[in-house]
Amino acid sequence: MHPDSPTKYFKILSDRCGIHNLHPHKLRHTFASIAITNGADVASVSETLGHSDKAVTLRMYTHANEESKRKVSNLVEELLT
To answer: Which DSSP string corresponds to 6-64?
Structure first.
């Protein structure tokens, strides 16, 4: 397979589906974000992605979303009551 083939096919798919800026790398980001948000340990996600340093994974793939912010608020509330 030519290295540009996945990008080419994603471009065709995104045009057909009306999804802008669809790129194979977004699958990687989605995988990592979903895994970490749902409790996967960063070390395992980092190794799966082939990162040599967990700090790269933390910097690129962990971010607060509404569900995560709600969970941490509920956790602190439970600890304080």
So the answer is: HHHHHHHHHHHHT-TT--HHHHHHHHHHHHHHTT--HHHHHHHHT-S-HHHHHHHH---
Structural domain boundaries of the chain? Answer: 5-80
Distance CA 42, CA 63 (A): 13
* CA dihedral of residues 27, 31, 37, 42 (deg, nearest 10): -130
Q: Which residues of the chain have pLDDT under 50?
A: none
Q: What is the pTM of this model?
A: 0.64
Contact partners, residue 6, CB within 8 Å, separation at least 6? 24
